[in-house]
Amino acid sequence: MDPLLELFGLIAGAITSMGFVPQLIRGHRTKKLDDVSYYMPMILAVGMTLWFIYGVLIDSLAIMIANTFGVCCCLVLIAMKKAYT
Amino acid sequence: MDPLLELFGLIAGAITSMGFVPQLIRGHRTKKLDDVSYYMPMILAVGMTLWFIYGVLIDSLAIMIANTFGVCCCLVLIAMKKAYT
After folding, report:
1. Torsion region of B2: left, alpha or beta (phi above 0 gives left; psi -120 to 50 gives alpha)
2. Best of A43, A53, A71, A74 to mutate (most B CBs within 10 Å, chain B)
C-alpha cells in the first residue's frame, strides 16, 4: 500500500484509538462508570477484532495497529466497569 | 476491491457501528450520561471522519459506510450528554 496513504490511515487510527483514553481516565478518576453501557465496549471489541482481520486481509498496517489498541482499550473499560460496580 | 473482502469489512463495520447503539439507548433510558467523557465521542468523531476519507482513498465502501454511521452516533451522543447535563 502507498506509504503516504498508510500514514494517513495511521493518523486516523491513532486518533480513534485515543478516543477511548479520556473515557478510561475519567473512569479511573471518578471510579464511576455506571452510565457507560457494558454492551458498547463488548460489541466494539468484537467489531474491532473483525476490523483487525480485515486489516490483515487488505494488508493495512494502520488498520491492524489501530484496532489492536482499540480492542485493548475496550477490554480495560470492561474490566474497570466490572471493578467499580 | 474483492466483493467477499468488502462484505467482511461491511460486517466488521456494522458491528463496530452497532457498538454505540446500546450506549445511546442506555443514555436515552436513564437520561444520565455523567460518567461518559465528552472527549470520547468528540475525538472518535474526528478520527472516524479521517477513516471515512481513508475509505474513499482506498476505495473501501465498508469503511465509508461504517464511519459515516459511527460519526452520526458520536454526534448524537454528544447532543444527548449536552441535553441531559
Report:
1. beta
2. A43
Q: Residue B31 in 3-state DSSP?
A: coil
Please name the member of A20, A43, A58 whose beta carbon is closest to the beta carbon of B5.
Answer: A58
Look up the ipTM and state it: 0.83
Q: Where are the domains of chain A?
A: 3-84
- In this structure, are residues A52 and A68 in contact, taking their beta carbons and an 8 Å threshold? yes
pLDDT tens, N- to C-terminus, chain B (85 residues): 688 888 888 898 889 888 899 999 999 999 999 999 999 999 999 999 999 999 999 898 988 999 999 999 999 999 999 999 8
Q: Regarding the domain delimited by B3-84, which CATH topology (the fold level of the hierarchy) does it fall under?
A: Monooxygenase (1.20.1280)
Alpha-carbon gap: A41 to the closest alpha carbon of chain B (Å): 7
